Amino acid sequence: MYLYQHTQKSKILLCVIIVVLLFMLFLMFRFGFNWINVVVFIIMIMALYLFNSLTVRVSSDKITAAFGSGLIHKTIPFTRIKTAEKVRNKWFYGFGIRLIPGGQMYNVAGLDAVELKLTNGRAFRIGTDEPDKLLEVIQSQTGKK
User: Fold this and answer.
1) What is the three-class DSSP state of 19?
2) Three-state secondary-structure class, residue 141
3) Closest CA to 121 of 101, 98, 141
4) CA dist list (Å): 132 to 4, 25, 86, 126
C-alpha cells in the first residue's frame, strides 16, 4: 500500500519521438531501406517505452521514482534522507536522468521538483507536477523539513 502514488506523462518526449519516427519513415519510403534508419527507429521506440512517464511512489519506509515501465528506477529509504524541499529546476537541466550540481535528477516534464538532501551529502531531485503533495507526504514520513 502506497501513501502516495502519482504518474506524470511526458508530452514533450512523445511529440519529439513521433516527429523523429515520422521522419525516419519518410526517409525509408523516399530513399529506400537503410539500416541506420531502422536502428534509429528501434532506439526511438525503446526510448518511448522506457521514458514515457515518471511514477513516484511513497510507502511507509521509502520513496521510489520509476521511468516508464519501471525498468529504470531509483529507491531511497527514508533513513538516507536528511531534508526535503520544493525547488524549481533551471530550464537547461532538461528531462530524463540528469546529473545536476551536487547530485542527480529524474524528470519528464516541467520545472517543479522536490529535492532530497541525502545523508551522503548528495542531492536527488524528483520532477513532479504535484510538488506540494509529494513534499507533504515525504515530510510526514521523515519528520524532517
Assistant:
1) helix
2) helix
3) 101
4) 12, 42, 7, 12
Domains and CATH numbers, the chain: 9-50 (no CATH), 54-142 (2.30.29.30)
How far, in Å, are 16, 20, 90, 114, 134 from residue 111 at the CA level?
18, 24, 7, 10, 15
CA nearest neighbour of 116 among 65, 60, 44: 65
Provide, for the chain, the percentages of residues in helix, strand and coil under a 3-state DSSP scheme, each rounded to the nearest 5: 40, 35, 25
DSSP 8-state class, residue 38: H
pTM of the predicted model as reported, rounded to 2 decimal places: 0.87
Query: How big is the CA angle at 95 (ends 114 and 40), to the nearest 5 degrees?
Result: 155
| Structure confidence by residue, pLDDT tens digits, 87-133 | 999 999 989 999 999 999 999 999 999 999 999 999 999 999 999 99
